[in-house]
Structures are given as structure tokens and as C-alpha cells.
Amino acid sequence: MRIPVIPTIIVAGAVLTMIALGFWQLDRKGEKEAIIARYEAAQAMSSEVVYPADEAELEASLYRRTSVTCGTVTDVTTVAGVSAQGAKGVAERATCLMPDGKQILVDIGFARDPQPVAWSGGEVRGVIAPGGRVVSSEGLAGLEPLAAPDPQNLPNNHLAYAGQWFFFALTALVIYVLALRRRGQGG
């Protein structure tokens, strides 16, 4: 039986690519674990940081405590949220203009009612969460406190992705071998 050259090269290239993607996901797993460990260390720090002025500073300040002044509230919306006691409901999220004109999001508290509350702004002490929003450490506007952001909630499913890529490579190889056997049997 003659093995077809072009299809074999294509399948081999695809299998090697899938294997490479599997190893890349394993590398990403290690990187994500290091990021989560860095965020956990930041979360354990007791000192406050000034709210970051740019994206580079924001990344270095995630999960740190901060204080901001919400000078003007331009909007209040609700998103899915969890209370400090673990109850499911909504987080009241305010869009604030700080005195320097910068716009930030502040999660001001937990409620079960999805209707946005009225809040006129003020001083907020909390934790800098992914995306740059500040999660207030106490419930404002008569709301309950929200659960603090937790680095352990960041997805780290790279091991599962690696397994999928390795499985896809194995599947492609098995299918190709079966196709070659069938072709060799004349059928």
C-alpha cells in the first residue's frame, strides 16, 4: 500500500500543530498560576494604593485596597453579584466621574432587588477588581456589602484546554490511520 504524500503531510502538520497548542496551554497554565499567586499576595497587603492613572499601573494594583472620591454619579446599573455572606443577587454599579475627570466604575453594594438605587457619590474605600472597577468594602446607599473580589475566581482551565488539544491530535491521527487501512483494503 502506498501512503499518499500530500494528505500525510497535511495530517502530520495538523497533528503537530495541535500538540504544540497543547503544550502552549500547559505553559499558559503556569503563567496563570503565577498571576493568581501575585494577586493573592497583593490582596494580603494592608496598605492602600492611589487609584492608578493608567493601564500599566492598573495591572500592578489589582486586588489592592484603595480610596476614591466619586464626585459625580452619571449612572447606576445592576449586574449579577454576591453578598459578603454569599447570597446571590445583584451588585449595584455606579459610573463615577472623579474630581480629576476620570471615569471609573464603583460597585457600591449588594441587593436582591434589581432596581438601581439612588446614590449621589462620595468617598469609597474598597478593592481594585479586574477591569479597574472598585468594589466597596462596605455597603453604600443602604445596601449590604459585596463579597470582595477573589483571585481564586479567575478562570484557569488551561489544563483542560491542553487535554483537548492532545485528544484532538490523537483523534486526527487515529482517523487518518483508519482511513489509510480502509484505503489499503480497497474500499
Give a brief outline of the structure:
With 187 residues, the protein is of the alpha/beta class. Helices cover 40% and strands 26% of the residues.
Shape: elongated
Order of helices and strands: HEHEEEEEEH
- How many domains would you count in the coordinates? 2
Unreliably modeled segments: none
In round numbers, the mean pLDDT is 92
Strand order of the largest sheet: 1-2-6-7-5-4-3
Q: What is the CA-CA span between the terminal residues?
A: 13 Å
Q: What percent of the residues sit in helical stretches (DSSP H or I)?
A: 25-40%
Helix segment count?
3
Radius of gyration: 25 Å
Largest β sheet strand count, sense and barrel closure:
7 strands, mixed
User: What's the number of extended β-strand segments?
Assistant: 7
Structural class: alpha/beta
- What fraction of the residues are assigned to beta strands by DSSP? 25-35%
What are the main properties of this structure?
187 residues
Can you characterise this structure?
The chain is of the alpha/beta class. It folds into 2 domains: 5-35 and 160-184; 64-148. The chain has 3 helices and 7 strands, in the order αβαββββββα. The chain has helices at residues 5-44, 55-61, 158-184, and strands at 48-50, 65-70, 72-82, 88-97, 103-111, 122-128, 134-136. Strands 1-2-6-7-5-4-3 form a 7-stranded mixed β-sheet, with no helix packed on it. Strand 1 (48-50), helix 2 and strand 2 (65-70) form a beta-alpha-beta unit. Helix 1 (5-44) packs antiparallel against helix 3 (158-184). The longest helix has 40 residues, at 5-44. The model has no long low-confidence stretch (mean pLDDT 92).
